[in-house]
Design a protein that fits this description.
By secondary structure, the protein is mainly α. The chain has one domain: Rossmann fold, CATH 3.40.50. It is about 45% helix and about 10% strand. The chain is built from six helices and three strands, in the order E-H-E-H-H-E-H-H-H. The protein is globular and about 40 Å long.
């Protein structure tokens, strides 16, 4: 099972999802799940995750790795589950789908959260630290939901 998290810049929300998911899989000892992330925009290609996102996750003892890449339609071939963070990302990812099988792989992040009713994962980039803490809270909740979803559909 291969899971791809997608946001706009691939330096805040989707690397948070990728790294929280990897941490959870490791703690739970679940084999066979590969995770990565990508952005719908190309502004930050090659950059490491934002230092504010990294700091928030390090405070929670979650290691952060990765370099930004742009989402392309070839990701549909490579991944089984594509998880966009907000409605714009969902729209832009679906625009690159070539068939209904591709479209079925797209499941917005917030559909996996149990403890939050937000419709989207808010973009923290231009805001304060509290935005990064909220993203991390959402990731910790939703990634558990993703793991349950994967385990229940296998
Ligand atoms: P992300 O956050 O989509 O969660 O990585 C953003 C990063 C950069 C920009 C916007 C959002 N930007 O406009 O450069």
């Amino acid at each position: 099972m291969k899971v791809l998290f997608v946001c706009l810049g691939n330096i805040c929300r989707s690397p948070a999802g990728e790294n929280v998911m990897r941490d959870l899989i490791k703690k739970e000892g679940v084999p066979g799940i590969y995770v990565d992330s990508a952005g719908t925009a190309g502004y930050h290609i090659g950059k490491s995750p934002d230092h504010r996102m990294t700091a928030e996750l390090k405070n929670r003892s979650i290691a952060v790795t990765g370099h930004a890449q742009q989402f392309t339609k070839s990701h549909y071939r490579e991944f089984d589950l594509i998880v966009p963070m907000d409605e714009d990302n969902t729209h832009n990812v679906l625009k690159l789908a070539t068939n209904s099988e591709d479209k079925k792989k797209v499941m917005p992040f917030m559909t996996f959260c149990k403890n939050f009713t937000n419709r989207e994962v808010p973009d923290p980039y231009y805001g304060g630290e509290e935005g990064f803490a909220l993203v991390a809270d959402l990731m910790e909740d939703g990634c558990k939901g993703i793991l349950e979803y994967i385990q229940s559909s296998q």
